[in-house]
Amino acid sequence: MASTAHADILTAYDGVEELSSFSTQELAEYRAGLLERTAGQTTFIAERLRPGAAALEVGSGNGRLLIDLARRGAIARGVGLEVAESRVAFAQEWAASSDLDTVRFLCADALTQPYEPAGAALCITGTFAYFDAIQPGGGGTVLAKLCQALPPAGMLVLEIYPHPSWRRLLEETGDGTLRLWHELPPEDPWRFYLSELHLDRDSQILTHRKTFIHRTSGEIDDSRCEHLRLYDGPSVTTALAEAGFGDVDLFGDWTGKPHEPSDELLIAVARAQG
Ligand SMILES: C[S@@+](CC[C@H](N)C(=O)[O-])C[C@H]1O[C@@H](n2cnc3c(N)ncnc32)[C@H](O)[C@@H]1O
Hints:
By secondary structure, the protein is of the alpha/beta class.
């Protein structure tokens, strides 16, 4: 993979959560915060898993979801695929120091790595939207691989950010380009950031460049860019059907509220059709 989107993902995530940057206490507090943030996602998923399930997660980041599912006894085994080495190392160390030898984290590209058979598949926090940006049709490739890894009726949980308010504004601009300023909370060393958004209407790929301005020095950072496919309820349902999934339920949050087009969150739960 050599696309700009892939290079930008590596820039954004490589080195994130480098273990050497934490003291013992900081690491314990950081992990506790991650578990607190993950609790709603874990509960939602655990309620829908079959007992003794083996889970496969693509874009597993720091491992928080599989680790929380394993420590709660909701999965018998788990494998996470994650492209950023530092995040894989963080997750491996977390699992090892928690005596969770049933979860494994591999440094791998979800687009090219063969998937092990699993009972359930997971892809959360908007990760799925990256795959089409990295490689045209990449989202469909990942969904088809996940479907093949699952047994008939095996569950997939996808969490997507459809950004309906950005989409509405972008559709009103002539060229699909928008600049938005955001002010950060007083405890943040950076005071403002500028979001420069461009939506390619054919591919539905959104390019988002963020530039930060420092609170005291006025320094302007080097900015960072991410590229993601903007999905909504109908387009994700179509992508799931094309990859072999059915029985799709769409939720608007992790409490299980039915999805509405204005929701900033879209959780799709689908079943592999045998
Ligand atoms: C928004 S983060 C979410 C991480 C994790 N799912 C969570 O919820 O904490 C997206 C993650 O996907 C990873 N990622 C992006 N492209 C990937 C790819 N092609 N293969 C594997 N991981 C990828 C990134 O490195 C990043 O850690």
